[in-house]
Amino acid sequence: MRTYKFQFVVLVLVGFTLGCSEFLISGIISDISRYFDKSISTVGLLVTIFAFVYAVSTPLVTLIVGKYKYFNSFIVMMVLYIIGNLMSATANTYMMLLLSRVVTAAVSGALLSIALTYGNAIAPPKSRAFMLSWIFSGFSIATVAGLPIGTYIAHVANWHYSFWAVIGLAIFTLILGALSLPRDLRAQVGTNSNNQLALMKDPLIIVGILIPIFNAGASNLFNTFLAPLFTDVLKFSATELSILLSIIGLLSIASSQIAGWLANHDGLRKIPYIFVFQFILFMTIYYVFGNSWISLLWILALELTFNMVGSSIQIHFFDVAERSYPQSVVLASSLNPVFFNLGISLGSAGGSMTVSKYGLTSIGFGSAIFVVFGFIILLILNKMIRKSAS
Phi and psi dihedrals of 309, rounded to 5? Predict the structure, then answer.
């Protein structure tokens, strides 16, 4: 059970498990809203708070686990993750659910960092981008299988049972990880400094971390309210919603795989074109909401692009760390998910304000603002990389 291929599957399963819990709220937001008699925008803040706690806690937790063997850290973080979801499954007040999401968010980022670090360490050099893209694809697979199933369970039974399903999956993942993952891997000691935070002083890192912020801000301002957009604006049924979420999940998997290909083909120089395409779609979708099927085409095109950035920027962070800050590899693995989730927090908060003030149909304009900033920052980063290489 300790073959590379089996370990590869386990690491993807870790991403899938984390994705099921993180994205579940978006699929059951209406059910939670009715259960607690809260507005959709208020329940949407669960996504904002989860992402904010994720972004704040992950670097702190990662700095701690980076001092220990990855295996021991994995076991501890998985147990805490299961406890957080157990609190969600038994929550009978909105504040209890909110607290449970804080606990889950506090360890989710560290778990993903450990999975990415394992993938970077055990994969052959030419397969790094492939391995990382598939770990990220675990989140996409969660939107294909986990999110629709969780949404269906909530609709036919109760949203609490959706979290019980996540708990079962997390226990299964913990067992497989305990049986298969290497037990002796740990971060190397750097030659420049033993301080893991030295990585954060590098200009290539300082500018680079802005990319996942604006990328996630654009996509999650839009996706946080995707379910009510489908049902309330475009008038698709609950059954059709589950099917559409599955289709979007498949597109998300394809997007992550394209991201892996881009990472092996100078992806950071190609992504500005993706941002331009997103900007055009975000700016025009408001004007096609009158037709459900044309709107759906716009949405599917956007969903295909949302994950294309991840692998390229993650490889960039690993390259900078391995070249100059080997003691900071685990911290480097956390940067993309940390700042992506900070972007989720900003995007979902911006989405809540947009929906409250202008309505669901205006969210495309808010996302377009994030895309513009991401485009500008990426041009600056590419110029810095070229200058550094020369």
Answer: -90, -30
What are 145-192's pLDDT values in tens digits?
777 788 888 888 889 999 999 999 999 999 999 998 888 877 655 444
Domain spans of the chain? Answer: 4-389
| Structure-token match 């070249």, residue found | 323
> What is the rounded CA–CA span in Å between residue 19 and residue 364?
24
**Predicted local distance difference test score (pLDDT) of residue 305:** 92
Q: Which CATH architecture is the domain 4-389 placed in?
A: Up-down Bundle (1.20)
pTM confidence score: 0.74
Average per-residue pLDDT for the chain: 85
Contact (Cβ atoms closer than 8 angstroms) between residue 10 and residue 180: yes
Rounded Cα gap, residues 344 and 217, in angstroms: 5
DSSP secondary structure of 45-108: HHHHHHHHHHHHHHHHHHHHHTTS-HHHHHHHHHHHHHHHHHHHHT--SHHHHHHHHHHHHHHH
